[in-house]
Amino acid sequence: MNAELIAASAGLVGVVLGGGVTLAAAHIQRKGSKDQADATLRAAVTPARLQYAGALEQQNRIAQRTAYVGFIAATHAFRQALRREVPGRANPDPFREVHRALRDAYIAVELEGPPSVLAAADAVVGAGFGVTQFVYTTLT
């Protein structure tokens, strides 16, 4: 009986040790798989974030460009109306319309532009307001 008990004990120890080694190997493999999955995720997320940031930056540039182009066009229309209306002392209504368009374009610059561009646009609109006041008091 002692021989049987020793054989059974040895078998039991073998099963326990084998199970422990199997569990340890499974844990190591799981950790390696998790590290690999994390590295794959990081490799996919980084370019996606960069692409998203690039697309956002491009959209911001387009919006700024649109605002600036609108403001420049409104400024040119204002200057042309000034040249047309003031020397002849004609009706100030068309001049009022281009001044309103300039103000509206300024609002777009205010939303999209950095402070330096906004300061320049503010100076243009301020000068335009002064000229408009002069024209209104002179023509009416």
Properties at a glance:
140 residues, rod-shaped, 3 helices, single chain, mainly alpha
Structure description:
- It is a single chain.
- With 140 residues, the chain is an all-alpha fold.
- 94% of the residues lie in helices and 0% in strands.
- The chain is built from three helices and no strands.
- It has helices at 2-88, 93-112, 115-139.
- Helix 1 (2-88) runs antiparallel to helix 2, helix 1 (2-88) packs parallel to helix 3 and helix 2 packs antiparallel against helix 3 (115-139).
- The longest helix has 87 residues, at 2-88.
- It is rod-shaped.
- The chain starts with a helix and ends with a helix.
- The mean pLDDT is 78.
Tell me about the biggest sheet? Answer: none
Q: What percentage of the residues does DSSP assign to strands (E)? A: under 5%
Poorly predicted sequence stretches spanning 5 or more consecutive residues: none
> Taking Cα atoms only, what radius of gyration do you get, to the nearest Å?
38 Å
Estimated helix fraction: over 70%
Protein structure class: mainly alpha
Number of strands: 0
The H/E string reads HHH
Q: First CA to last CA: what distance?
A: 126 Å
Query: What's the mean pLDDT score?
Result: 78
How many DSSP H or I helices? 3
Dominant shape: rod-shaped
